[in-house]
Design a protein that fits this description.
two-stranded antiparallel ribbon, ten-stranded mixed beta sheet, alpha/beta, binds magnesium ion, 2 domains, Isopropylmalate Dehydrogenase, 14 strands, binds 3-isopropylmalic acid
Length: about 375
Amino acid sequence: MGTYAIAVLAGDGIGPEVTEEAVRVLGAVARRYGHVFNTIEALVGVAAIDAEGDAISDATMELCQESDAILFGAVGGAPRYEGPNAKIQPERALFRLRKELALYANLRPIRPFDALLNASTLKTDILRGTDLLVVRELTGGIYYGKPSEIRETAEGLDAIDTLIYTEAEIERIVRTAFDLARERRKKVTSVDKANVLSSSRLWRRTADRVAGEYPDVTLEHLLVDSCAMHLIRRPASFDVIVTENMFGDILTDEASMLAGSMGMLPSASLGTRRTEFGLFGLYEPIHGSAPDIAGQEKANPIAAILSLALMLRFSFNLKQEADAVEKAVKGIVEAGYRTEDLREEGKVIVGTKEMGRLIAEAVAG
Ligand code: IPM
Ligand code: MG
């Protein structure tokens, strides 16, 4: 029994739809196990720019600081806030949350359900046995390096982005990966572009040094282009993949296809801060706001619901409850229910709300 404070930032596009279903499932967990979850909603993204003048207000940042965990939907996708001339980008909400809350470790587990092996674009034989965890560095690299701008020069416009990593930033994320690998199959694949980038050479050197402290864990290095290929050639051979911010962003969209759809993949963003219950964290589906399907009952809420399960596990140490949510999702998928993104012959296609309701009901037992 406990009382947990959760900041709920649903955001834009399909963000509110999928988040609502995760909150519905949270309600079922509360009833079944007798917990009290205090959810407090606030605006982020386009909605916040329109109503509060910024992608995330200081008041919302404070609310997040004071909560035990954050449930995040998606931001972006409004044409009027896109493009090089947009003054405030909705994505700023995410970047500010990640950086200011020091959530440097983004965990993206990819474990395709057997029932969905056919839904993937890849062959079942290749997929079988896939169970990998991408540990993406989230508060450094080219996402944050300065300068980053379009500039006027005598020869016309140019543009610059800066890719910088400190040894300390690399070391802490590599350590996270090794610690997690110890709880799994004891293999870390460190992904870089050391044949081209200095930041990658420091990355590789640091990974090698940290590996010395984990003699029980195997370390493999892969160049990012090669990793992109091996992910769809031998996905089952990976255990923990650790990589820098932008490589992790790209590789996880690719890897999501192993699970059949982007709509299946949750994530947890963690730092070192602890609350009385567990690690403080932000939980969000890896997919975006998908404005093209918003409001049509087509969005898959499973990524958001599995993100909730990660919250129960990491931030609240509620293992039994997290297992119950994951089991419920698996059961509903095995029973043949699918959202539009996983349309397949002979399966029952349901809307976003119905999918959420079915899973909540399964959790309620
Ligand atoms: C992700 C997303 C974000 C990122 C976007 C929305 C800025 O693609 O979380 O993977 O690139 O980090
Ligand atoms: Mg991404």
